[in-house]
């Protein structure tokens, strides 16, 4: 028998005996309140919890929450590219129990959450809403993250990239709505950050990295620090850009500073309102700046610390 024919026959035989799971991965998997994790996660026979649906869905696929319910009993560890969404009108809930509700520790994947609710299960030691610490992408759209008692709504580190659109993050009493540290980057647009320890923080804490956050067309209210760029590593940096946003009723509106000499931090603000805060802006340490493009309304605050640096409109 010709060698090429033998190879082809061997390949066909190997394919024949592949496990059923190799052929069963779905583009779209489903979970429902009356589902069962022994089901194949199809529309006709949905699963009950997200881990089962994640095992059934192909990389790049979707998981649909069909009804209002909680869809996990422990941290949901996501290790493939996937979109998780609740159908319109359903409250698709992912609860934090003894840790983050969602953990992303696999690099080079893209995870999207749409129309979901992330809250803690009381009395379980819940921490972050979503934790991502690797070079992967996370997008959160039209969702709610609320009531976390000990950590952050979104905790991003490493070289992660986070995008938040049309989302409310509120009552994060133990941390920030969004915490970007190390080399993480984040963009927040059309969102509301309400009632908590802080709105957004870019933290330069890893040598030779820059944590960066942009906040656009958003509303920040009743938090400790509205936006906070802070670095405590001598070769790290932290940058925040604020455009067409309102920061009001907080302890600090615009806040930036350094913990060690050599670190660099900045907040750049354009077309925004900063009002009714205890401190409209506060600058401390060395190499810390707040840049204003001279088209902001910074008024009716109890006081300010430091001096703004004006830059012309480009």
Q: Can you describe this structure?
A:
With 314 residues, the chain is mainly beta. The protein has a domain at 152-314: Pectate Lyase C-like (3 Solenoid). The protein contains three helices and 29 strands. It is elongated. The termini are far apart.
Helicity level, as a percent range?
A: under 10%
Q: Per the principal axes of the C-alpha atoms, what is the gross shape?
A: elongated
- Average predicted confidence as pLDDT: 92
Helix count equals 3
CATH topology of the domain at 152-314: Pectate Lyase C-like
CATH class of the domain at 152-314: Mainly Beta
Strand content: over 45%
CATH architecture of the domain at 152-314: 3 Solenoid
* Spatial separation of the terminal alpha carbons: 73 Å
Low-confidence stretches: 1-22
User: Which structural category fits the helices and strands?
Assistant: mainly beta
The biggest beta sheet is recorded as:
17 strands, parallel
User: Measured on Cα atoms, how large is the radius of gyration?
Assistant: 23 Å
Number of strands: 29
Give a brief description.
About 10% of the residues lie in helices and about 50% in strands.
Q: What secondary-structure arrangement, pairings included, does this model have?
A:
Elements: H1 3-16, H2 21-24, E1 26-31, H3 50-56, E2 57-65, E3 69-70, E4 76-78, E5 82-86, E6 92-96, E7 102-104, E8 110-114, E9 116-120, E10 130-132, E11 137-141, E12 144-146, E13 154-156, E14 161-165, E15 168-170, E16 176-181, E17 185-189, E18 192-204, E19 210-216, E20 219-231, E21 237-243, E22 246-248, E23 252-258, E24 264-270, E25 273-275, E26 279-284, E27 288-292, E28 297-299, E29 309-310
Parallel strand pairs: 1-2, 2-5, 3-6, 4-7, 5-8, 6-9, 7-10, 8-11, 9-12, 10-13, 11-14, 12-15, 13-16, 14-17, 15-18, 16-18, 17-19, 18-20, 19-21, 20-22, 20-23, 21-24, 22-25, 23-26, 24-27, 25-28, 27-29
């Amino acid at each position: 028998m010709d060698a090429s024919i033998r190879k082809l026959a061997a390949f066909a035989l190997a394919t024949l005996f592949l496990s059923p799971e190799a052929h069963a991965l779905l583009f779209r998997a489903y979970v429902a309140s009356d589902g069962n994790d022994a089901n194949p996660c199809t529309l006709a026979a949905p699963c009950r919890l997200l881990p089962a649906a994640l095992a059934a869905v192909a990389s790049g696929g979707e998981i649909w929450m069909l009804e209002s319910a909680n869809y996990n009993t422990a941290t949901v560890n996501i290790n493939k590219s996937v979109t998780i969404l609740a159908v319109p009108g359903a409250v698709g809930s992912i609860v934090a129990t003894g840790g983050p509700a969602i953990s992303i520790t696999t690099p080079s994947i893209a995870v999207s959450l749409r129309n979901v609710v992330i809250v803690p299960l009381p009395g379980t030691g819940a921490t972050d809403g979503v934790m991502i610490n690797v070079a992967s992408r996370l997008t959160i759209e039209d969702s709610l993250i609320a009531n976390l008692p000990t950590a952050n709504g979104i905790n991003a580190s490493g070289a992660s990239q986070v995008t938040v659109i049309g989302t409310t993050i509120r009552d994060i009493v133990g941390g920030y709505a969004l915490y970007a540290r190390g080399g993480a980057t984040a963009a927040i647009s059309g969102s509301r950050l309400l009632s908590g320890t802080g709105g957004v923080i870019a933290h330069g804490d890893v040598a030779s990295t820059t944590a960066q956050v942009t906040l656009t067309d958003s509303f920040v209210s009743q938090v400790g620090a509205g936006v906070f760029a802070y670095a405590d590593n001598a070769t790290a940096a932290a940058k925040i850009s604020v455009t067409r946003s309102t920061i009001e009723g907080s302890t600090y509106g615009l806040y930036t500073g350094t913990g060690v000499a050599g670190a660099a931090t900045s907040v750049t603000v354009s077309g925004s309102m900063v009002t009714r805060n205890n401190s409209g802006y506060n600058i401390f340490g060395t190499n810390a700046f707040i840049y204003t493009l001279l088209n902001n309304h910074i008024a009716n605050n109890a006081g300010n610390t430091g001096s703004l640096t004006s830059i012309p409109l480009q």
